[in-house]
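To whoever is covering the structure queue this week,

Two jobs came back overnight. Logging them here so there's a record in the thread.

Job A:
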Amino acid sequence: MSIRACLTLLAASLLVVGLGALPAVAAQGRVGLDQVLDDFVSAVKADEAIPADKKKAAEAIVTSLRGDVDGKSSIITEVLQVLHPEYKEALAQLGEENLGAAIATLAKLREAKSPYLAADASYFLSRAYLLDERFEDAMPLLADLQGKWNGQTGYGGEVLFLQGVAEVALLRHQEATQSLEQFLTLYPEAPERMRVGAFRQLEQLKLYAEGTLSDVSLRMEFSRRKLALEDTGDDTRGQQEKIVEILAKLIKEAEERECNCKGGGSGQGQSKKQGKGGEGESQAQGEGQGQGGSSGGGSKGIDTDTVKRLQRGGPRSPWSNLRDKERDPVYSAIKEKFPARYQQLIEQYYKSFGDDSEG
């Protein structure tokens, strides 16, 4: 499952506040959901600033959802919306993806005196940041929810899942693998859509290999997001340089394979034509010269001949017409969103395969 698919899942889940029940007894120091709810109910009852009618409404919500498998984890959120109208409005704005307004209000409520309101606001603020692709801003909030506010949130499983999603987007593959595996282990009763999403993301992480086109794709997504946020700092420039480095390496390797393949083909052709007279010798010699011209000195990455092959007015390889290329997400992303330099490098990489097939 891609990052965007995970974010789509996240946006869809905003329509339903309750995301499923979590284990009553959590592992590794995590406070169980039932204990969190018991402490929350006691805190509401003890708060003299809460009017009696709102306490009664809160009690009704707890009674109604406590036995609901799908709604149990949302009890705190539902009660807080009754107690704090501005919080209810912020969640409505988030559900409508009015992220600017929602983030402004949630950031304010994160500093609330009530630890339950601060924790719940932090959770939904982290989701707003994720939807806005501000993964760096979401990470400290998710850390707080697993630390100082561990006993004030009913969204332990969701927090761990979202942390894994953010870590994938930040290219922290090892950390993301650990977070998602821990989520699947600790929260077997989490919503199926989240568990499936975590499993698929883990499968993709297993297939990841540095220096491949899949690596380029992830780095390009990171760069695109950073540029959209107008962040042109060292991280962004570093990733862009790495993209060009990987593509240049892939191109060089492809061209070397092409030269080796054509060199072997030329030798075979010459041996077959021996003894056939002047015509055979002439043709073989011409082929040998042609091959020597393309391979002399070996491949040096992005050379003059390669650049010439990129000119749109020149002969086109049948590879250019293959559907696979058009469907390739890396090529499509470069063509639509990235500088012409990237597109030329990818065109060159694909062209090397086209020339190989023609030989």
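Job B:
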Amino acid sequence: MGIIKSTATKVSVVPSTGSGDINWMYFKGNGHTSQRNGEWDHINLQRYFYIPILESGKDTLPWLGGFSLTWQLIPVRQAAYYTTFFYSASQNTDFYDLRDNNGYVGCHPYPISSNGEPNGELHTIHRWEFSIDGGDQLSNLVGYGQKFTQAFRMRVDDLGTGQSALRFHTQITGGNTPTSQYFDYTHWGSYARLAPHPYKAMVFGNCPWWRDHQHERLSGFVRRIKIFSGSLSDADLLAESLSDQLVTTAGKNLLWWAKTNPSSPDDLLSDFADKNGKRRQGYWIDSARCTIVRDQDLANHTALQKATLPPEQNPTHLERG
């Protein structure tokens, strides 16, 4: 676990005119109240969106090129696994397919009782994690109902072996000197040369292997998603994470897709064009949608009011089809 204090990037942020201009995407949690698996794992509604990475057969976000993301998240407590994002595939895949043939990575809360830690027998206590290599690399405890400004970057350090440096910023704070808590993981290179999955995509809100497991839902509120086709420096990544706008030269040059302040569930066309003038489109996997919640209404939202409680005490938040 590390701490970064960054003054390297000076930015000019366009301020919001008020909390009424800020929107969040709200996702219900999984349907059961304890354990990693439950009777509500296989409901029909998937409720996740994705942005295709393959375009006319070209991999527009290859592992070897590195990539970076920023987002804001308010987690609501649930049993078992979460999904914030997966760099993976949108459909026609499973966990073993991605692990062995195409590669994947994600950053989420993880149920710590799976690793034998105390007081987690119901799988409702979590730590932040890297999900990669068929395993889970854990950091500090998750705070439910709290607003987290977060970021991720992946950088290939050895083009020969594909050895890669991953960093997950679990909490970024602003001010004159932006500060980040983060942890790192070294991936030893097996993903760098793998062929892309035919449905390679960035996935948000549920796991891409949903046909086998549906207990890995987002469970909470998310916004300010930015994806970059390269490894941003810590200074640039922190600056981008703290603004709805594009505020660094590197961010503008490497933008791949961004939805920072969605106005409706179907508002998934990128907020900004990339350097080639392209605005990528996101898609929902089925008819299920998130709901949009205004920032000024968050405090009165039932899911947030009960975000720290055991899931059985937050019944309207449970996804049961």
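Note for Job B: Residues 8-19 have pLDDT under 50 and may be disordered.

Please reply-all if you pick these up so we don't duplicate work.
Q.
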